[in-house]
Amino acid sequence: MMKKALITGITGQDGSFLAELLIDKGYEVHGIVRRASISNTGRIDHLLAEHKVTLHDGDLSDSSSLIRIINIVQPDEIYNLAAQSHVQVSFDVPEYSGDVDALGVLRILEAVRILGLEKKTRIYQASTSELYGKVEEVPQRETTPFHPYSPYAVAKQYGFWITKEYREAYGMFAVNGILFNHESERRGENFVTRKITLAAGRIAEGLQDHLELGNMDSLRDWGYAKDYVECMWLLLQQEKPDDFVIATGEQHTVRDFTEKAFLANGIRIRWEGAGLEEKGYDAQTGKMLVCVNPQWFRPTDVDNLWGDPTKARTVLGWNPQKTSYEELVKIMAEHDRELAKQEARVKCAQNK
Ligand code: NDP
Ligand code: GDR
């Protein structure tokens, strides 16, 4: 019998990679999409074109849609990836972030319970290294205390605990993957890595003058999203439900990522100044390419994330270094340089 999976957030970075993985594994894949005024399926259009996924209209803020969809699909596995996932945006839309990122998780768990599927359906909850927030221990592991440091992280903390609660109270197979930052060529354009690789490509093609960033000292443990979705699946294949940290075990600054992304485009950055006055210059031409804009600072910023993937490595047999940090920067930089070249060709044709 073909297993059925339901992915919330299937149109996002992780959802699109996970859908591909599950299709390859022979699953019947369903996804929840929310209404948008223009198409939001760009990351999965290749799957839709071949009728490889079935989409259902719904929203994490709407219990009735979730109950209806889960009842139709009767999934063996639910991957709850849908979220207002931008940390800085959560300071501007805190109530909505709480509704979707906290109560949305409860709505999924309750829907499964109401439908009497608690013994059939396994649930993966997309938890996050942001739970560690104002860091109390490095590196962070499953036993490190949480100190959420944004409305997003506070909401995700509720999601974490309610998932654990339903596991303990109702014996449900419901687990948390505490995933550290993972990036890719499909990453949303307003997360820092993608913002940098897009800008580096465009600057190299003469389409953009410079890049403005916020906290460049911030440290992140960055992995490749395509590798991380494998863990989501692995977590639901275990004999017993349990929560896991998923990370590479390495950390780098935003500044370092910036340097490497420009270098992948043949530009060496020379830094001068400090704090708000810090600037990055093209070491060859002396042109200013990177500067700080306080607009991108957060009211409270998480600045030291570094995961310990020992448990995932030993229990799941997962390789945290499948794609190295250097390879990740290269994949993203090369992809976005190609995009910039295409943009330059279009501009050139328009000017003829
Ligand atoms: P994205 O922002 O790329 O995708 C989020 C998805 O959620 C999109 O499909 C989006 O739909 C959907 N969504 C948002 N709000 C709703 C809603 N109200 N109802 C239904 N769907 C909704 O995130 P990622 O793929 O990067 O992350 C996936 C999950 O993992 C998120 O929960 C995130 O918080 C968490 N996470 C991510 C990490 C990372 O580094 N990427 C690390 C740790 C956790 P639409 O396309 O219409 O916007
Ligand atoms: P994060 O990712 O907040 O870790 O959340 P993001 O890429 O937005 O920020 C990482 C760090 O970079 C600093 N920064 C900037 N960030 C953005 N977006 N734009 C800038 O210009 C900029 N300059 C510096 C930030 O201050 C921060 O310290 C991501 C999301 O995917 C969450 O959903 C997920 O839970 C966590 O990763 C793990």
Overall pLDDT, averaged?
A: 98
**Low-pLDDT residue spans:** none
Each distinct ligand: NADPH dihydro-nicotinamide-adenine-dinucleotide phosphate, guanosine-5'-diphosphate-rhamnose
Radius of gyration: 21 Å
Q: Would you report the number of β strands?
A: 15
Protein name: GDP-mannose 4,6-dehydratase
EC number: 4.2.1.47
Cofactor: NADP(+)
Binding site for NADP(+): 210
Polypeptide structure, described:
- The chain is built from eleven helices and 15 strands.
- It is an alpha/beta fold.
- The chain is globular, with a radius of gyration of 21 Å.
- β13 (269-272) and β14 (279-282) form a beta hairpin.
- α9 (254-263) packs across α11 (325-351).
- The chain has a seven-stranded parallel beta sheet with strand order 3-2-1-4-5-6-11, with helices on both faces.
- The protein binds NADPH dihydro-nicotinamide-adenine-dinucleotide phosphate and guanosine-5'-diphosphate-rhamnose.
- Residues 8-9, 11-15, 32, 34, 36, 40, 59-61, 81-85, 100, 126, 128, 179, 181-182, 188 line the site of NADPH dihydro-nicotinamide-adenine-dinucleotide phosphate.
Tag the structure with descriptive keywords.
352 residues; alpha/beta; 7-stranded parallel sheet; 4-stranded mixed sheet; 11 helices; 15 strands; globular; binds NADPH dihydro-nicotinamide-adenine-dinucleotide phosphate; binds guanosine-5'-diphosphate-rhamnose; GDP-mannose 4,6-dehydratase; EC 4.2.1.47; NAD(P)-bd_dom_sf
